[in-house]
Design goal:
Layout (H helix, E strand, L loop, with lengths): L8 E4 L4 E11 L2 E6 L5 E3 L3 E3 L2 H6 L5 H19 L12
Antiparallel strand pairs: 1-2, 1-5, 2-3, 3-4
């Protein structure tokens, strides 16, 4: 990747994460770029510049919404687990 710039749209190849660079940080001899889509930092040598059109075509997922849905499914699973027991407290052995 050529020298990245704030506002440039990039993709992190390992996960397919796409976002615009909002800040840079230097640490342990590496330069990291913060992406607006996740708020996380990625090594700039692991990023690939992409066009704005490619960014708009990618599916955007709402992490908080996905997390809330997963927590709801987990709660429902835990609640339904008790429905298949006879509520007895028997031990084995």
């Amino acid at each position: 990747m050529s020298t990245p710039a704030i506002g440039q749209t990039v993709r992190y190849g390992r996960t397919g994460t796409v976002g615009k660079i909002v800040a840079f940080v230097e640490e342990n001899g590496f330069t990291f770029a913060e992406l607006d889509s996740t708020g996380l930092y990625y090594r700039i040598d692991q990023l690939t510049a992409i066009s704005e059109v490619a960014h708009k075509e990618t599916r955007h997922s709402d992490f908080r919404k996905d997390l809330e849905e997963e927590q709801k499914r987990f709660r429902e699973m835990n609640e339904s687990a008790w429905q298949n027991t006879d509520q007895s407290c028997e031990g084995g052995g």
